[in-house]
Predict the structure.
Amino acid sequence: MSLADLETVWQSNGETPLPECTYDPELHTGPRLTIESTEERAAREAVAREVCATCPALLLCELYARQARPASGIWAGRMPAELTTHTTELEDMEVA
Ligand code: SF4
């Protein structure tokens, strides 16, 4: 699958919807101005994973994150360490 194909999958009715995390970025990165407890962090990350699951940019995001190797946050529903341990349909993709 080419990058153009992925972008076509992302589009809906000719429009390119915004990634879900653009509406609440701190859900995926954590709060900037407060310190969250372990329980709060786990709850936030669980919600972030749910948001990612319905994101129109999920495949593109995972592809990007696997290449960019972020140090923190939730990307494509995964923690950075999980991006390298999980196999997905992207494993078989050739992106042009
Ligand atoms: S899949 Fe990626 S772009 Fe979509 S909400 Fe999750 S982190 Fe954001």
Notes: The mean pLDDT is 84. The pocket of iron/sulfur cluster is lined by residues 19-21, 28, 51-52, 55, 57-58, 61, 75-76 (CB under 6 Å). Residues 3-92 form one domain. The chain has five helices and no strands.
